[in-house]
Amino acid sequence: MSKPQILMCPPTYFEVAYVINPWMAGNEPCDVELAKRQWEGLYQALIQKAGAEVLLMEPVEGLPDLVFTANAAFVHRKKAIIANFKHPERQPESDYDEQWFRAHGFTTVRLPEGVYFEGAGDALIWQDRVLAGYRTRTDIESHNVMTAETGLSVLSLELIDERFYHVDVTLCPLEDGHLIYYPGAFDDYGRSVIEAHVPPEKRIPVSAEEAARFACNAVNVGDTVVLNQGSTQLIDTLRERGFNVVPVDVSEFIKSGGSTKCLTLRVG
Amino acid sequence: MPSNTTTTAHLMMTGHILDSLTLSKVFDKILDLGGDYLLNDLQIGLGKKDFSYLNLTVETETPEQLDRILAELKPYGVAPVENASATLQAATADGVVDEHAYTSHALPTAVHVEGQWIPVEAHEKDELVLVVNLDCQTAVFKKPTDVKAKELVVVGLAGLRW
To answer: Per DSSP, what are the bridge partners of residue A72?
Structure first.
């Protein structure tokens, strides 16, 4: 059986060079050498502890957020719906993302002009559906494109808190049907949608404090969950439910508004 | 039919609007902002990957109220009917039409194709499909069994006006 494949991008040019989300403002300067060591720690954890194969894409000078490969595309089987970034600072990334996917045998899809979409940062496969965020960075019109291109139905979830600007910082579907999620990131309609589709025993709600430490931005491979250190309540809950939890330190990337999940993209 | 166009808008939305509760949210927002709506048609997608289609008319007391409602609804994929052209699918053989061909007991009065509104010929209500002739700029309802191969049939609710 082949190993799960995850795409990452080395942080050679990573820095917090602009402010396009609330996490980027008001921090101590990013320690780029520490960031490189933290990225390496995540990379090794995915290989050694999660048993994944990690594929790499070339970093590009002037595109510090290329390191957040989760946003590169939404991937289903061998098709990649390429991101159409909302902010000009990230828009050039799309062409590099598409080049990588084409070079690795994927069919690529580009969205219509004016329809924003930030890849697997805002669209997570859960069983036979997609849990997809919209409003802050992604337009709801992209959800119909996802269905048309993949045949998957989409549950659209409005993101109501600018701090939780991608759906992958608000929830994490686990392979066994559990759902880690922060209820406060959604309005009554969004919470009703989650509760209607996820049985109570499979829901793992996260506190506001731990959500702010990006607890929901976790990488799940089989029964292994890799996430930012410090979310002790969630870590304890996951271990009680039989998961192998691997906390890692990604503090320098959180200064840019991303954690472990943002730094990765499942491509196979 | 509402007659004051400055406080009336013909809108549509499509997608998984039922499962996502987006439809409920749109109705609630219209009412919360002091408007009213008339549901012209709703076609429910029966399969998991099938879209549902909604066409509605929103009415308000003032143009400012309507502008606010339209701005509030835009993030939910609600768009003026005028922005969308009808989707046309050619019949593959005599009497064979797309499974998503528009059929409804609420008969539209016009269809938007290639930037033009084509009036729909009045007909008795029945399970009919809407056939568009681009050369003649006509739109008529026909029984599916009367559709000829290559005739263009309207699919979904996009581009329809009541």
So the answer is: none
